[in-house]
């Protein structure tokens, strides 16, 4: 940097001395002459201030949208939405780690930006070296993680993921333009030797290659508006099952024979689901859908896994709701509440209109029981004439299937605690509800 310092000193000396023929006859003339001489220095300072302000603002915005993206994907609602499903825990941890790394690098990058005021118009660490580290340790990992998160959520890219990609693409581009602007001054002043110039040129090309990689990830899954009928198509043949089957949570299932499991849990193979199509729930925005899960027959030798509190002379009454969509849950969610309906055994003195009791559940299902979104691929009778049920995962584009959300505020026993219920296959409809 010694030749550059000498050139700057020579410029200052020329500014400090006026030509002999200029006659300064008043204090105002001396002030005007000083302004004329310092104007090149003032213009240079003004350009640096503009670049530093722009770089600091974009860097802060880049760091901010990274954290907002992480906060949104950490929201508790992320496990509940239809179709997209939850963020895998491993990817969530990696997103947290590299967002923290990005915050540390943001502080160092901002400090390096302000060193332009004390290093004769150049940053302390050349931007090409700085970006080589930052793109490698922050932007490429975060872009890759957001890409794989979208792949695990049916290729859905959120607004904040889109903003993350847009901001860092613009930020890196402008930072490289600023670097080229500063490097151009040094090249013009012939302050580089041939070997040093080739090395800096090579590093600049390497940073541009890394920039292309970081830009490719968001470009592969940029946010697009969903087609009007796509959502209805994706949920049209999805059923709701109540099962105790942990293996259905961890992997995509395709053409799995669920017959033995259904028999062991006392389900009717002709109607093994709780809700045949979740479209019936989605269509009732603002209302409730009632559905019935009959308890297994008492002393059935085939039943080995019985749901607790589900007695042989009773059933479970479900009430489902579909709240409006929002950004965290772009396809909405299905919520439910349930109650145990107990029906006294009919004795010699009983009548057809025996009163039954409705006991609302105090917590979600326990001991591995839960509601599953599944597709019933095929129900057929093989040669032994025994009905078989084949199921598959509801949405193959998710790493982990979403699940309905238990909401104890949904009314399920609000109309009365004791009511006539002569036929448990056709529960009485309620105001604002549909019944399956």
Summarize the SSE layout with pairings:
Blueprint: H1 2-16, H2 27-74, H3 89-114, H4 127-151, H5 159-188, H6 194-220, H7 230-235, E1 239-244, H8 247-250, E2 256-257, H9 259-264, H10 279-282, E3 288-294, E4 314-321, E5 335-342, E6 355-360, E7 369-380, E8 388-393, E9 405-406, E10 418-420, E11 433-435
Parallel strand pairs: 3-11, 5-9
Antiparallel strand pairs: 1-7, 2-8, 3-4, 4-5, 5-6, 6-10, 7-8
Helix pairs in contact: 2-3, 2-5, 3-4, 4-5, 4-6, 5-6
Précis, in short:
With 436 residues, the protein is of the alpha+beta class.
The tally of strands reads: 11
Helix content: 40-55%
Biggest β-sheet: count, sense, barrel?
Answer: 7 strands, mixed
Query: How many distinct domains?
Result: 2
**Number of contiguous helices:** 10
The arrangement of helices and strands along the chain is: HHHHHHHEHEHHEEEEEEEEE
**Unreliably modeled segments:** 20-41, 225-229, 415-436
In round numbers, the mean pLDDT is 75
> Gyration radius, to the nearest Å?
34 Å
Taking the alpha carbons of the first and last residues, their distance comes to 81 Å
Shape: elongated
Oligomer: single chain
| Strand residue content | 5-15%
Structural class of the helix and strand makeup? alpha+beta
């Amino acid at each position: 940097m010694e030749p550059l310092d000498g050139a700057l000193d020579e410029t200052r000396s020329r500014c400090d001395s006026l030509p002999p023929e200029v006659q300064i006859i008043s204090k105002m003339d001396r002030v005007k002459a000083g302004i004329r001489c310092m104007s090149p220095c003032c213009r240079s300072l003004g350009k640096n201030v503009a670049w530093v302000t722009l770089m600091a603002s974009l860097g802060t915005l880049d760091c901010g949208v990274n954290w907002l993206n992480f906060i949104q994907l950490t929201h508790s609602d992320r496990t509940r939405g239809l179709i997209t499903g939850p963020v895998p825990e491993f990817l969530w941890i990696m997103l947290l780690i590299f967002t923290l790394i990005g915050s540390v690098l943001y502080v160092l990058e901002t400090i390096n930006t302000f060193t332009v005021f004390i290093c004769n118009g150049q940053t302390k660490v050349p931007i090409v070296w700085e970006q080589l580290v930052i793109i490698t340790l922050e932007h490429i990992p975060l872009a890759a993680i957001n890409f794989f998160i979208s792949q695990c959520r049916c290729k859905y890219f959120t607004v904040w993921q889109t903003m993350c990609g847009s901001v860092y693409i613009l930020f890196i581009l402008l930072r490289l333009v600023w670097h080229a602007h500063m490097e151009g001054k040094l090249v013009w002043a012939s302050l580089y030797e041939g070997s040093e110039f080739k090395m800096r040129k090579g590093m600049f090309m390497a940073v541009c290659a890394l920039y292309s990689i970081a830009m490719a990830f968001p470009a592969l899954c940029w946010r697009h508006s969903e087609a009007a009928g796509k959502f209805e198509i994706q949920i049209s043949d999805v059923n709701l099952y109540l099962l105790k089957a942990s293996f259905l949570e961890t992997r995509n299932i395709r053409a799995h024979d669920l017959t033995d499991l259904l028999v062991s849990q006392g389900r009717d193979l002709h109607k093994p689901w709780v809700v045949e199509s979740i479209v019936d729930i989605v269509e009732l925005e603002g209302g409730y859908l009632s559905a019935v899960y009959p308890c297994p027959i008492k002393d059935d030798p085939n039943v080995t896994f019985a749901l607790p509190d589900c007695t042989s002379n009773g059933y479970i009454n479900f009430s489902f709701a579909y709240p409006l969509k929002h950004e965290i849950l772009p396809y909405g969610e299905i919520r439910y509440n349930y109650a145990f309906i107990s029906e006294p055994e009919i004795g010699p003195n009983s009548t057809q209109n025996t009163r039954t009791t409705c006991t609302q559940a105090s917590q979600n299902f326990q001991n591995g029981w839960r509601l599953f979104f599944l597709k019933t691929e095929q129900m057929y009778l093989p040669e032994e004439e025994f009905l078989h049920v084949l199921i598959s995962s509801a949405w193959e584009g998710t790493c982990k299937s979403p699940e309905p959300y238990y909401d104890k505020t949904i009314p399920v026993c609000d109309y009365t605690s004791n009511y006539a219920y002569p036929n448990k296959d056709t529960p009485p409809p309620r105001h604002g509800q549909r019944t399956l």
